[in-house]
Amino acid sequence: MQNRFSKYIPALTWAREYDRTILSNDLLAALIVTIMLIPQSLAYALLAGLPPEAGLYASIAPIILYAIFGTSRALAVGPVAVVSLMTAAALGNIVEQGTAGYAAAALLLAGLSGLILLGMGLFRLGFIANFLSHPVIAGFITASGIIIAASQLKHILGINAEGHNLLDLVMSLIKHLPETNWVTLLIGALATGFLFWVRKGLKPTLRRAGVSLALADAATKAGPVLVVVLTTLAVWVFGLDNQGVKIVGEVPQSLPPLTLPSFSPELFRQLLLPAFLISIIGFVESISVAQTLAAKKRQRIDPDQELIGLGAANVAASLTGGFPVTGGFSRSVVNFDAGAETPAAGAFTAVGLAIAAVALTPLIFFLPKATLAATIIVAVLSLVDFSILKRSWAYSKADFAAVFITILLTLTLGVEAGVSAGVGLSILLHLYKSSRPHIAEVGLVRGTEHFRNVLRHSVKTHPNVVTLRVDESLYFANARFLEDSIQNRVAGDPDIRHVILQCSAINEIDFSALESLEAINKRLDEMDVKLHLSEVKGPVMDRLEKSHFLDELTGQVFLTQYEAARVAEEGCGTARSG
Amino acid sequence: MQNRFSKYIPALTWAREYDRTILSNDLLAALIVTIMLIPQSLAYALLAGLPPEAGLYASIAPIILYAIFGTSRALAVGPVAVVSLMTAAALGNIVEQGTAGYAAAALLLAGLSGLILLGMGLFRLGFIANFLSHPVIAGFITASGIIIAASQLKHILGINAEGHNLLDLVMSLIKHLPETNWVTLLIGALATGFLFWVRKGLKPTLRRAGVSLALADAATKAGPVLVVVLTTLAVWVFGLDNQGVKIVGEVPQSLPPLTLPSFSPELFRQLLLPAFLISIIGFVESISVAQTLAAKKRQRIDPDQELIGLGAANVAASLTGGFPVTGGFSRSVVNFDAGAETPAAGAFTAVGLAIAAVALTPLIFFLPKATLAATIIVAVLSLVDFSILKRSWAYSKADFAAVFITILLTLTLGVEAGVSAGVGLSILLHLYKSSRPHIAEVGLVRGTEHFRNVLRHSVKTHPNVVTLRVDESLYFANARFLEDSIQNRVAGDPDIRHVILQCSAINEIDFSALESLEAINKRLDEMDVKLHLSEVKGPVMDRLEKSHFLDELTGQVFLTQYEAARVAEEGCGTARSG
């Protein structure tokens, strides 16, 4: 019983080893992460089109639920850039931003996403995430980063602009450009410039000035908080909100509220696909962060349990006024680097954010939205990495095509179209490649028992016997290609009396391929040609024995290709050289 | 130039060898096929929801176009049962049957289907048809046969009934059952019973009575024509049309008219997916018939050229008052058995049908629709074969699932949902299987240089070295599984210092898998474990050399697993037994 609980509630495992040292490490990490998360949470709520407090709420209960059910010891769960963008894109086409319906729809989206993740975890369907190939993810994240940055330009310029893809956004920005608020632009540009400098230039400068590495790191991380404080003060002192600078305004002083998502069937239907995509993308992002951090300490990550942890976190977000969440890269790395040893650090972070939600919200009344936009822009531009185009081009044109289409369609049509097209194209290209497997005609290398490709090696063949080696498992996508190849090879050469299929590279034969082999056997028989198999792997042979194929086979099954060729050639006369 | 033309117009090849013997063989085959096709063409038009003459028109120009562009010498192109059902299902939801719009939509459907096939042929995209696994096709055809038979019951009963899936059809039949026309039912039942008897009992009876095989065969084939003649006479003589028996009525005496499909963009959009499905299903059906017949004479079939032949045939159908066509099984077999040697037999059949369309149409005025329905029912019930369920269950549960879902959804939701779900599920199951490849931990078989699974064989292993053999190509669907497997294996055993990946069964490594290998290499490095590769295939190695992976690899690449294990173990001490 103990073991079964521990399997589904990993917290029971680490809680038993918990001691004072771990506690103090976890507390310190929690403090650092809390400070970092306050501006980040507000900013991602803005990106998702929600009021700022939603960002804080989405970082409290979900962190605790993940701490109980998740398997990563350092992963920090909460709103992240790409998922916030996908939330805005999903809701933007359905309900109007700023309405009560919008926030309710965000809760439903988080709830659906949580249930999908829980379902995938319980039924061990995590493999679905494998459909997202690395090039598609890389392309998608790069394109999303660009869209996110573009979507925040309106806050920097102090104008209105709408759109969930780059084209719409840019058109809208150009249209509203004359309405630019110069004070807002000044704040936004200064904040963006300062944050870029903090990220790139501050640390080397401090180090050159003899500041210790730890202190330089801390200063770098405190940059966003400093910008928040300075710009808020500037707005308050100079009354810039009266100059048209948009501010965060009143934020309720409250713990996360208990909320129930809307249950309209129409909304449910419209949000199902976006929720599925958000779940998958969020899971893929999160697990790769978790794996990277776990490897540094030789810890295990259980992907199915991760689905349950993330699912519980999203359900929690939906019941406490949040929106879809997942494990974030930057917050997890900060958590890990700050010395977090167990998920309890996450729970302490939640307490810190809860205190912030209750006590600090009045202080951000004058926080300009342009500052939050600057935080987002600087954070997401690090996601943009076009080198994937160059690297995939060098390695494989098919993978390049998948990246390219994903980036192109995400930028022009939006996140859902982009990622769907990328996934579809990856699968299509994979099936295409394996539908035309490498089929080598092989012959005996003189003085050995090895058979190699007749085109690459000087080998011995026989005019009446042809041996083909298929370098791929046989399944529906290449079954017909095999039929065509063998039939065309034999139809073109009236001397052939034996066809040997060397099966050494065949890991599986599915039912379609079995029927194709039966058809090949029958058609060869009508041409008066015998079909033999050689070097069939054990599991494949077990399968074949369950069918009638071996009874109908006109030739034999040989353990080795050498034996097969010897027996087939025996009845046919002498060998010729090739 | 000659050769290039011959490639795209196979008729140029066989036309050069044409002589008087071939001519007389082709003419005889054409006569037999023409007689068989007259009732069949009328019946399939009825099934597609079109006026009877559309069936004749769809058999004339398409045959000629296929004769010019197709590569099969015996394939007979025209309306077939499954494609006619799909046509009715595609149009039934969009336009009302019996209207001019319905016939115009059928032309557009044939035109679109033709263009899709031509496009696939010219761009060599025939591999798309590989997405249809054999179990899905078998399930789809069985379910379609049942739906077709059920859809014809209304003609046998003389009532109205509608629906494109079994549930709707049966509900509708039950509702209208009280309106049964008893005279129609008598004709329908007698015709069906007689045709069944002709198919099953006539030939043995004649043979027992000492009739020659050829004559018995001919009598069997003449059965449908006899039923047409007898029931038409019965209606005419007894004036049964006044008793409520529905008849074919007036059919224009005309050669196929020149027609232009409708070009409404809305209709275009609605018919694109059905046209695509019809193209794929039609192509798969046709090519398997063509392959089977070609094998009997050691002839070649070029799948891409077949797409062009079928595409041209469908474009011709759309321009001459027809509807979607493909190569039919029964008509092609009859054509082949009757001795057709070249596609000219098809052209002669077209002439025969053109004569029928001009001269014989007044004779079928009194032909009862119940007779045509009986022809269809008897023909399609031979398509119904539930043994695929049993055979696939015995061989592979995944393939069984694909058949079962295809049959279930085709019967309950209709043809398009059924075939789409079947294709989707096949791909999903394939990716699922290859996403969790067999990964064996291997050790050295004593006294040899062979490495085998530690679980199945008594082998020598080393406490600090683990060797894993993946029995599958590495690509995006299993890249993460590989990461998880290796990380969990190593995280659980602190002694491990070397991981060797034996790559003998890996035919490909895509970009996702490459990035996973890079991540594995990096994570193992952080655990202070070296990663080695052994027995990497040539093409895979070529690929890897284009990337930075080999520079970053902490270990080495070995030609043989034996060498890899020896080098890795050298630095680690003595071996232990497993």
UniProtKB/TrEMBL annotation, chains A, B:
PROSITE patterns found in the cross-reference section: STAS
Major site of localization recorded for this protein: membrane
Classification via Gene3D superfamilies: STAS domain (3.30.750.24)
Transmembrane segments: 27-48, 54-69, 76-95, 101-123, 135-160, 180-198, 218-238, 271-295, 307-325, 345-365, 372-389, 401-429
GO biological process, any: transmembrane transport
An annotated GO cellular component: membrane
Membrane topology: Multi-pass membrane protein
Localization, UniProt: Membrane
Top-level taxon of the source organism: Bacteria
Entry keyword annotation includes Membrane: yes
Domain STAS: 455-568
Record keywords, A-Z: Membrane, Transmembrane, Transmembrane helix
PANTHER family, sorted: SULFATE TRANSPORTER
Protein name, as recorded: SulP family sulfate permease
Provenance organism: Litoreibacter halocynthiae
